[in-house]
Amino acid sequence: MFSLRALKLKTRMMLILGMMALLQTGFIGFFALTYLTHSLDEQIGQRALHVAKTIAGIPEVVEAVESRDSELLQPLTLDLASINDARFVVIGDRNGIRLAHPSWERVGKPMYDDDGDYNEPALLYGKPYIQKAVGSLGASVRGKAPIFDRNNENVVGIVSVGFMLTSVEDIINRYRTTLYIVIVLSFGLSVLTGIWFANHFKKAIFGLEPEQIGRLFQERNATLESVREGIIAVNSEGRITTFNRAAVETLGLDANTKLTDRPIEEVLPDSRLMDVLKSGKPHFDKEIWLQDRNLIVNRLPLLQDNEITGVVSSFRRKDELDAVSKQLTQIQQYADTLRSQSHEYSNKLHTIAGLIQIGATDEALALIGQETQSHQALIHLMVEAVPDPILAGCLLGKYNRAKELGLRLEIDPESSMKEIPDHIPREELVSIIGNLIDNALEATLSNKRLEVRLSMTDLGNDLIFEIEDEGQGIHEEDHSRIFLKGVTSKKGEGHGYGLHLVQKLLQKLGGTILLEPGDTMGSRFTVYIPKSSESQS
């Protein structure tokens, strides 16, 4: 079964516009021709009636009718028909018997034989009228008028003046031909318009067919609803055009609230989407408070022909991201610990195997005892001083990482970190300590030294961590800018983020960090994290 959907958009538009043009011009043409036919018939009828009235008022005609003088009326009617461009002029007496006719053989015969009309309006009631009929001379429009006597009192006869309808048909045919030409031109113009409009329209919709757009729209809706991040888009007027269920849930809005076409400032008065709409500058990973919720937000302007047509914003609750970050941090810490231990024990096992193969069993036993004693001491310190498994796992991983690099991470045996408040996120704590230890290891290694020192204490109102390296140190003029994002003394890309992250996390926890030269060389970083949650507000 044929369907328009099987055709391409351009073909469909050509057919639709062409058919519309045909229907419109055909309807208008039919109406115009019908109206013209009736108008011409009426005009010719009025003209015939006017001529009939004029002839009925001629004295000579009245006298000839009263005297039944056909010899006078016959040539007179022919002359009058010729003068008025009429097809015929017929005159009859008061009984409807012809006194004059273009054909002599019809003179003396009843007029009703010609057209079936008994002429009653004119002969009986003295009223002129118009008649359309087919007579002996063909189809015609006739105007009939009564002939009154010289006193204008009694009807003595009738005048019938006829104009043939063939002239009307000729005029209608000329107009019909013109109409056909107009219909063909209109169809051609509509097809050209359809081609132009289809090309322009398809360019605007990136060459897609309507069915493809429909499928993309459905896919777009499904995609929006499948995304766990909230998404809201506004147009150039700041009115909401797109949103998903996650946006409604994240912002705590009523699920039955109609958001489409509502001003964004009416729904979210504190939103910054209008700022992006005006400036055109995108916002990435902005932490904001909106609707009493802490969100991480991205805002991106929509551009078309270098003009801002709207803004799209995606956002997610920060606590959800923190939960994911916590899981990733713990996994990374475990992975680092396992990797370091694997490398460390692999190297030791290779060494022990080599000693056994060369017969140095005493040295192998001494190395085993040394490693056992060293790890037992570290594990005992972790158990006694750092009961928190996440922090202890982080420190153990960094210890093994240092040994893998050929360095020593010396943890002060007097350290104590037993009273870590529950409100301090462990993933943020290990991020702070882990970044500082990594920096210290890299600085010490680059200066071809061996030792990094760590001491911890939870005495008093703060958690205090002190990390000292044996690197080249940091110039005093760089102390104020070392925590800026991207600032680093290391070569290559991918550096300058660790200390910046440490400072950001400490600001969130209400803590501080102090940088000063080490006792012998390098730098010492001292971290203070308050135990009380009030200090973080």
What would you report as the Rg, rounded to the nearest angstrom?
Answer: 54 Å
The CATH topology annotation of the largest domain reads as: Beta-Lactamase
The unreliable regions are none
Mean pLDDT: 80
Query: What is the helix fraction of residues, given as a range?
Result: 40-55%
Query: What is the number of E strands?
Result: 15
* Alpha carbon gap, first and last residue: 72 Å
- Gross morphology is rod-shaped
Could you please describe the fold and organization of this structure?
This protein has 537 residues and is of the alpha+beta class. It has 3 domains: 1-207, Beta-Lactamase (2-Layer Sandwich), CATH 3.30.450.20; 213-318, Beta-Lactamase (2-Layer Sandwich); 374-530, Histidine kinase-like ATPase, C-terminal domain (Heat Shock Protein 90). It is built from 15 helices and 15 strands. It has helices at 9-56, 59-66, 70-83, 112-115, 120-123, 166-204, 210-226, 245-251, 264-267, 273-279, 318-357, 361-385, 389-404, 426-446, 498-509; strands at 88-93, 98-100, 129-135, 138-148, 155-164, 230-235, 240-243, 283-290, 293-304, 307-317, 408-411, 451-457, 462-468, 512-517, 523-530. The strands form 3 sheets. The chain has a 5-stranded antiparallel beta sheet with strand order 2-1-5-4-3. A 5-stranded antiparallel beta sheet has the order 7-6-10-9-8. Strands 11-12-13-15-14 form a 5-stranded mixed beta sheet, with helices on one face. The radius of gyration is 54 Å and the shape is rod-shaped. 27% of the residues are buried. The mean pLDDT is 80.
